Structures are given as structure tokens and as C-alpha cells.
UniProtKB/TrEMBL annotation:
<feature type="domain" description="Metallo-beta-lactamase">
    <location>
        <begin position="28"/>
        <end position="244"/>
    </location>
</feature>
<dbReference type="Pfam" id="PF00753">
    <property type="entry name" value="Lactamase_B"/>
</dbReference>
<dbReference type="InterPro" id="IPR036388">
    <property type="entry name" value="WH-like_DNA-bd_sf"/>
</dbReference>
<dbReference type="InterPro" id="IPR050855">
    <property type="entry name" value="NDM-1-like"/>
</dbReference>
<protein>
    <submittedName>
        <fullName>MBL fold metallo-hydrolase</fullName>
    </submittedName>
</protein>
<dbReference type="InterPro" id="IPR001279">
    <property type="entry name" value="Metallo-B-lactamas"/>
</dbReference>
<dbReference type="InterPro" id="IPR036866">
    <property type="entry name" value="RibonucZ/Hydroxyglut_hydro"/>
</dbReference>
Length: 343
């Protein structure tokens, strides 16, 4: 477990509130509190766990507010380390909970689907991706899906201003990490909450869900969103407050570096396809370079790796560099030969 940082006042009525994720190597999520003329709002809430709730409650009290007095919470996206405590916060304080409509839709669908049906559906996706039977058995044995977060009651679209009198906190839609991911620009203080869209060191996960869906282009959206935040006026003077790691400046440079990383990954995948010929998603994913050796990954990590791989394949398809063949029960991918140069 990573060492927990302390609660910090960052100036301009903004506080950093680290909330632990028990049993997870990520360690914690930074929740932020923004004070206004009539109360305060939170940016994200943290993981749904008693230890996390206690940490959030104590941290809010350190700011001079109380959990019961929180006005509302803006969720950058639906993932459980960001949205997990939304329902408990609303029950304790009557706070409104806001999220982008695209992620509200996902939260509603997750809430309506029993956990065992989600596990069965995920196992079916892995089978169609070509995962071996031993991986499927391991997946069924180890998968313990977190409960979906409470469904938000307010939709926050791109450009909308958060209900916080005396402050100008504006939503910036940055799809990719999730379909409805939001960054938030505190215009009156040159502060930019990046959520999981721009992190200072690691590259945020971008996956295709459901795994073998042909709808959407999450990585294409993500790269376009990186370019968009890099074009924010005076982007590099903003204090960037991410959900993980540490605060930073130099938004446009970091956004460009993240996009470049994915371009390099696309080239690596194209080269693998040219060498392999037609290949299953499992064959492609297991043949790529990862921070941890493929043989050492637990099957849940392999599933995340496959989701990331197929998001890259989708973008290669959109760019005409790869094609999907095979059957619905076992899709295959192949490289598309570049057109011959004119003589």
C-alpha cells in the first residue's frame, strides 16, 4: 500500500483530501473540496468502504466544513474509486450528485444488472476473444465486482457551470477514459481538475467496453480530448489537480506526451499484426509489451490489458490500418497493407 499523503489546503478555497482504496495497489484517490459563498462541493467522493468513508469525513472536517453540510459532489466519471461513496454522501447530507449524461447512463445500466450476470457476460467476452480455458476458470474464481455507485441526480454537460455560488467551476467534457469523463476548470483561480484524463506520470487506461463491441472509438476520443485540453487558453499556467499521483503544471506538454505514447503503441500493434497475420485478441494482447510480464498477470489484469488492446485496434480500424475478420464467436484482426507508392 502506498503511503497516504496528508490533507492539504491548496489556496483559493481548494483542499486536497486523499481517500484510501483499501486492498488496492493504487492506494488512494484524491478527492477535492472547493469552498464557495454558500457551502462547499466535492470533486469525486472515493471508494465505497468504511475506511474510505471515515477518511473522507475526517478530511472534510479538517477544512472547516462538515460532511452533513456538503452542498454537492461532481463525479469526474463513474469508476468506483471516484463515485463509490456518492450514495452515502447524499444520504448523510442531502447533497446533489452530478455527472456527465453518458456516465449516468452507464451507472443506470450497471445498477440494473445483477452482479452474476455481469460476471457471466465478461467471461463470454473473454471466450470470444480467444482466452484459454484456464484463464476463463481463473476469471470466474477471482472476480469480485464492486457494487455500482448510486445513480447521480444531476446531469452536467460540457460547458455547464457547477452550482457553487461565488465560484466559477466549469465542466470540460473529455471522453476516452470513460464515455462521460469530465475535467473541471475553476476559472476564478486558474485551477484545473484533471480526474483520470491527464495524470502526471502514468498513462490513463483507455479500454473498449464491452470488450468486442464495434460501437464507438474510445481511444480516438481520448486522443482528441488530450488535444482539446492542451488548447485551453494559457493551459500551461494552470495548476492541474489529478485524481492520482501528484499535482503538476505544463498541461499542454503532458497531454501531448500522453497522446504520443498511444501513437507509439499503435505503431507497435501494427508491426505485431504484420508479423502475425490474422490473430485473436488474446494472441495480440499477450504478444505486446506490458509493464508486468504477461505470464505474471492475474486474469483480471489480463482482461484490462485486452480492453486496452482492442481500443487501439478500433482506432487502427478507423484509420484504415487494421481490419476485423473471423466470426462473431471468434473475431480476428489483420494488418491492412499500405497502398503502393506511385511509380
Amino acid at each position: 500500500m502506498r503511503e497516504m499523503p496528508r490533507v492539504e489546503e491548496l489556496g483559493h478555497g481548494v483542499w486536497s483530501l486523499p481517500v484510501p482504496i483499501p486492498g488496492n495497489p493504487l492506494g488512494f484517490t484524491y478527492v477535492y473540496l472547493v469552498s464557495g459563498d454558500d457551502g462547499a462541493v466535492l470533486v469525486d467522493t472515493g471508494w465505497n468502504h468504511e475506511e474510505s468513508w471515515d477518511a473522507l469525513t475526517r478530511a472534510v472536517e479538517r477544512t472547516g466544513h462538515s460532511i452533513e453540510g456538503i452542498r454537492g459532489a461532481v463525479l469526474t466519471h463513474f469508476h468506483p474509486d471516484h463515485a463509490g461513496l456518492a450514495g452515502r454522501l447524499r444520504a448523510a447530507s442531502g447533497a446533489w450528485i452530478a455527472m456527465h449524461p453518458a456516465d449516468i447512463d452507464i451507472t443506470e445500466r450497471l445498477a440494473a444488472e445483477p452482479a452474476h450476470e455481469r460476471v457471466t457476460a465478461l467471461a463470454g467476452q473473454l471466450r470470444r476473444a480467444g482466452f484459454p480455458e484456464e484463464d476463463l476458470a481463473a476469471f470466474a474464481a477471482e472476480t469480485d465486482l464492486p457494487e455500482p455507485s448510486a445513480v447521480p441526480d444531476l446531469a452536467l454537460k460540457d460547458g455547464d457551470t457547477v452550482d457553487l455560488p461565488g465560484r466559477t467551476l466549469r465542466a470540460v467534457w473529455t471522453p476516452g477514459h470513460s464515455p462521460g469523463h469530465l475535467c473541471l476548470h475553476l476559472d476564478d483561480a486558474d485551477v484545473f481538475f484533471t480526474g483520470d484524463h491527464v495524470l502526471p506520470r502514468i498513462t490513463p487506461h483507455v479500454g473498449q467496453f464491452p470488450l468486442l463491441s464495434t460501437d464507438g472509438d474510445p481511444l480516438g476520443d481520448f486522443i482528441a480530448s488530450q488535444a482539446a485540453v492542451g488548447r485551453i487558453p494559457e493551459a500551461d499556467r494552470l495548476l492541474c489537480l489529478p485524481s492520482h499521483e501528484h499535482r503538476f503544471t505544463g498541461l499542454s506538454e503532458r497531454a501531448g506526451a500522453i497522446a504520443e505514447h498511444h501513437e507509439e503503441r499503435l505503431d507497435e500493434m501494427s508491426a505485431l499484426l504484420r508479423h502475425a497475420g490474422r490473430a485473436t485478441l488474446w494472441q495480440i494482447t499477450s504478444g505486446l509489451t506490458w509493464r508486468r510480464r504477461w505470464a505474471d498477470m492475474r486474469v483480471r489484469a489480463r482482461h484490462m490489458a485486452a480492453a486496452e488492446t482492442v481500443a487501439h485496434l478500433r482506432l487502427l480500424e478507423e484509420r484504415g490500418r487494421a481490419t476485423r475478420t473471423g466470426t462473431p464467436d471468434l473475431p480476428l484482426w489483420a494488418a491492412v497493407a499500405a497502398p503502393a507508392s506511385p511509380a
